[in-house]
Every structure is written in structure tokens, then in C-alpha cells.
Design brief:
Shape: globular
Radius of gyration: 27 Å
Order of helices and strands: HHHHHEEHHHHEEHHHHHHHHEEHH
Number of strands: 6
Strand order of the largest sheet: 1-2
Largest sheet: 2 strands, antiparallel
Structural class: mainly alpha
Helix content: 55-70%
């Protein structure tokens, strides 16, 4: 497929905006929880240093929050503008979680974020703490509903295709809500966000210690960040493993591509630690294998096989042929007058093969009418179900390596915090500063693994990406891609400059509000005082 076509350019535009947006999301998720933890300590102890910490890290949270909102709104508009057939085809299911996210989560978050910044001297300590928790809850609820929608794209449950309306319709909203893929992705994603914030706070605090500035605030911040980050990093690894198990059940081609498993191996399959995948030769060069590990991760057993890419391509070709039967029956549905009786033969054929309709739609990338496809086109469409193996192979491994490094980093600082030796050595502090970017790199690679690995499907097994796009022109897409890239790049530069300026400035003195606002009538007097005897 040529690069300058509508499908490729639409994918590129959405990928760019999503990757830009996801630079802000993890930090928002994690910092909102850390702020709530720090303010809880302030309310419980009444120590001004904790209030100062909340306000300082809250400033950085606010800068990131604004940019996250600005970049996120554009993504939802793209569903109607760039992916109009997708919105028509699955809007009944996909639209509901996004609508709930706006009404239930975003409004909550946006309302209370104002109280967080401007309510310090207008609310009681407990009242302001509740506002902070509302911001944190809203941020995480927002992620929940968005990932429910995304989880359905990965594993479509609780819905069926209605041949009368030519659309997907909800049959069980609770199945959509409690989709195991969505729930696992939610916990994994928010844990990654918590870890991102923990590394962010840890790295900046380490920089302060290296510079000999704001020592008291930096040490307390590092203690909270390290403890919080260790829990989050372990959760990321554990939930990543659970996610791998679910992928092997529901997205077998993605799992095979991540592993670079070209042929089905005897159970339990080995894990390829490193190698150089070669899609033309259909093999991995210089591969190093660890016996049994992939079988345990992917199947939780020693006896179940994980199918290889070549076997899955053969299975996809079979499903394309079955899907053509369903597609032919669907044309009979469309030709039947409204209120008329669909021939029993067509209804039975669609009932038997309707689950494979999406595979027949893969052929729309080659011919207008899938029923006219040649054998060569059917074979090519079956191979289209294989994502780019080297991209997935290395994205996954780099992400996993960063994940285990973060576990070790957080564990080190937890131990040093318990020993009260956070600034005992300088080299770990330098490592913490150098590691600041790693969670973002891992998060972006995780997005690539999940979303790029789903291709060629907009909805796994249901709607191919090639059939989901709007009827746009190449010049229009090129213009908008250039515009988004320019605007988002400017926004990132602005955020980085604002963040660096706030970090260099550091936390500001913040006296206790009770002392600052004490009425003159009860303020301490310096004049003569009567003794009880007088």
C-alpha cells in the first residue's frame, strides 16, 4: 500500500495526536494521586512543609493538566472527521463510554481543579483536601471510561452486528463495562501513570539535592515518590503479565508478532529474549531463547500451544472465505425491501458466518466488492492481518526492560529513605535525574504495542481500518498533519519551558493560613498586659 493514501495518512494523523496527548496523560494521573497523599499528610500533621509541597507539585500538575486537556479534545473530534464510517458503524457502543467520561469524570475533574488552585484560603483544610481528592478521582475515572472504550476495540464483547441497520449494537452493556481486557488495561495504564509521576517527583527532588536546594522538601518528596513508585512499578509488571495472558487469548496475532513466533512451537513455547525479526525470510536472526517462559506467560500452562504467525495467516484466509459468504448474504438483506421477508437461505448463511464478516471487509482495500476478489487478493488480505513484527518485537522488549529498571530504581530509594541516606551518595541521585524520561518512553512504546499491534483492525476482528475512514483527500490530510505537528510541537515547547521555569524557581515560602489571616482583635499584642493579680 502506498504511503500517500487516505487510510495511511488518517492513521498517521491519529497516531501523532494520540502520542502527543499521551505525553501529558500519565503525569496527570499520577500527580493527582500524589498531591492527594501529600495533602492528607498536611491535614493530619498540620506541618507547613507539606502544604508547601502540595502547592509546588500542584503548580507542575496544573501546567501539565492544561496541555493534556488541549490535546485531548482534538482526538475526539477526529472520530467524526477522519473516521466517520467507524463512528457510524460502532457509535452506539463506542460513544457511550466517551459520553459518560465527559459527564461523569471530566466535568468533575475540571470543576474541582479550580477549587484546588484557588480555594486554599477559602476552604477549610478538610474541604480543600476533598477538592484535591475529587480532582484525583475525576482524572482516574476519565482514564477508566476511555480505556473501557479502547478495551472494546481490542476485545469487542456485549455487541452484535444488526444486518437490518447495518451497524453494531449493544446487547450487554455490563459485558462492555466489565470487559476483562478493558479492566486490565485500565489498571496497567493508571499504574504506569503513577510510576511516571513518581519518577518525575523523584528526579526533580534528586536534582534539588544535588544542587543543595530545598533539602527538606526534596527529601520528603523523594520518600513519598519512592514508596508510591515501588508499588506502582510492581503493579505495572504484574498487570503487564496479566495483559499478555489476555492478549494470547483474544489477540493471538498480536501476541505472535510481539514474540516474533513464526511457527507454532510445541508447548510450552520458549521466550525470545533478543533477536532480529525478518519478515521476508519469516524468521528471527541471532535469536536467544528462554525455554518455557512464553508458554507460561501466554497460557498459564505447560500443555497449551501458542499459534505461530504462519498458522494464524492460514486461519485468517479461512475466515475471509467464510466472511465472503456472510457478505453475500448481507447484500441480500440490503436488496430486500423495507418490511419485506429476507430469504431463509440468506438469513441462515449470515447467522452461521456473520462473525467472520469483518474478515471479508479486509478485501475492500483491494476491490470495491469483496466478492470479486481474486485468490491472490484473498491471500494478500490474509497477510495484512500480520502487523509489522520488528516494531512490535522491539517496542515490547524495550518497554519491559524500562519497567524492570524502574522497579530496581524505586526499591533502591525506598531502602535509602528508610536508612535516612537519600543524599549519602551522588551517583544514585544522578541516575534518578537521568531516568526522568524513561517512563514516558515506556508509555509511548506501550501505546505502540497495543494500538499498532492491533492493525489492520479498527475493531479487532470486526471492522478493518481500511473500511473505517472518512472520504477525505490526500492534500487535506497532509495539511492537517502538518498543522497538528506544528501546533503540538509549539505546545510541548511551551510546557517544557514553563515546567523548567517553575522547577528553577522552586517552592515558594508559604506561611500557615491561620497566622496570615488572624484577625487583629485576637492578634498577639506588644502593649502592657494585666496579670491575674492585678
Amino acid at each position: 500500500m502506498e504511503f500517500l493514501d487516505i487510510v495511511t495518512l488518517s492513521r498517521l494523523q491519529f497516531a501523532l495526536t494520540a502520542l502527543y496527548h499521551f505525553l501529558f496523560v500519565p503525569l496527570t494521573l499520577g500527580l493527582s494521586i500524589l498531591l492527594a497523599v501529600m495533602e492528607t499528610v498536611y491535614v493530619m500533621t498540620g506541618r507547613a512543609i507539606w502544604r508547601q509541597m502540595v502547592k509546588f507539585w500542584g503548580t507542575l500538575f496544573g501546567i501539565n493538566f492544561v496541555l493534556g486537556v488541549a490535546t485531548g479534545i482534538v482526538m475526539e473530534f477526529q472520530f467524526g472527521m477522519n473516521w466517520s464510517y467507524y463512528s457510524h458503524y460502532v457509535g452506539d457502543i463506542f460513544g457511550a463510554p466517551l459520553a459518560i467520561e465527559g459527564l461523569m469524570a471530566f466535568f468533575l475533574e475540571a470543576t474541582f481543579v479550580g477549587l484546588f488552585f484557588f480555594g486554599w484560603d477559602k476552604l477549610s483544610k478538610v474541604g480543600h483536601l476533598m477538592a484535591t481528592y475529587a480532582v484525583a478521582i475525576g482524572s482516574n475515572f476519565s482514564a477508566l471510561w476511555i480505556l473501557i472504550a479502547n478495551g472494546w476495540m481490542q476485545h469487542p464483547v456485549g455487541a452484535h452486528f444488526n444486518p437490518d441497520t447495518m451497524r453494531m449494537e449493544v446487547t450487554d452493556f455490563y459485558a462492555v463495562l466489565f470487559n476483562p481486557v478493558a479492566q486490565t488495561r485500565f489498571v496497567h495504564t493508571v499504574s504506569a501513570g503513577y510510576l511516571t509521576a513518581a519518577v518525575f517527583v523523584l528526579g526533580i527532588s534528586a536534582w534539588y539535592l544535588l544542587k543543595g536546594r530545598h533539602i527538606d522538601l526534596a527529601k520528603r518528596s523523594m520518600t513519598v515518590a519512592a514508596s508510591f513508585g515501588l508499588l506502582a512499578s510492581v503493579s505495572v509488571v504484574v498487570l503487564g503479565d496479566e495483559g499478555g495472558f489476555l492478549v494470547s487469548e483474544n489477540q493471538q496475532m498480536k501476541m505472535a508478532a510481539i514474540e516474533g513466533m513464526w511457527h507454532t512451537e510445541p508447548a510450552p513455547a520458549s521466550f525470545t529474549l533478543i533477536g532480529i525479526p525478518d519478515m521476508e525470510a519469516q524468521t528471527n536472526h541471532y535469536a536467544i531463547h528462554i525455554p518455557w517462559v512464553m508458554g507460561l506467560i501466554g497460557t498459564r500452562s505447560l500443555t497449551e500451544q501458542i499459534p505461530g504467525i504462519l498458522d494464524l495467516v492460514d486461519h485468517a484466509e479461512e475466515r475471509i472465505r467464510n466472511g465472503l459468504i456472510a457478505y453475500d448474504a448481507l447484500q441480500t438483506y440490503r436488496a430486500t425491501p423495507q418490511g419485506g421477508q429476507v430469504p431463509a437461505e440468506a438469513a441462515a448463511a449470515f447467522a452461521e458466518h456473520g462473525d467472520d464478516l469483518g474478515y471479508a471487509l479486509l478485501l475492500t482495500g483491494y476491490v470495491e466488492d469483496p466478492r470479486t476478489a481474486t485468490e491472490e487478493q484473498i491471500a494478500a488480505a490474509a497477510w495484512d492481518t500480520v502487523p509489522h513484527v520488528p516494531t512490535l518485537f522491539w517496542s515490547f522488549r524495550i518497554m519491559v526492560a524500562i519497567g524492570f529498571f524502574n522497579v530496581a530504581l524505586m526499591a533502591w530509594f525506598v531502602v535509602q529513605s528508610a536508612r535516612r541516606k537519600l543524599d549519602h551518595r551522588t551517583w544514585p541521585l544522578k541516575v534518578a535525574v537521568a531516568a526522568l524520561a524513561l517512563p514516558w518512553i515506556a508509555a509511548e512504546l506501550g501505546w505502540i504495542t497495543a494500538e499498532f499491534g492491533r492493525q489492520p483492525w479498527a475493531i479487532e476482528g470486526v471492522l478493518p481500518t481500511v473500511a473505517a475512514v472518512s472520504h477525505l483527500t490526500v492534500p487535506t490530510l497532509l495539511l492537517t498533519i502538518a498543522g497538528f505537528t506544528l501546533i503540538y510541537s509549539v505546545l510541548i515547547v511551551i510546557e517544557v519551558r514553563l515546567m523548567l521555569a517553575a522547577i528553577r524557581k522552586g517552592p515558594q515560602p508559604d506561611p500557615e493560613p491561620e497566622a496570615r489571616l488572624m484577625p487583629a482583635a485576637i492578634a498577639p499584642s506588644t502593649g502592657p498586659r494585666l496579670t491575674p493579680a492585678e
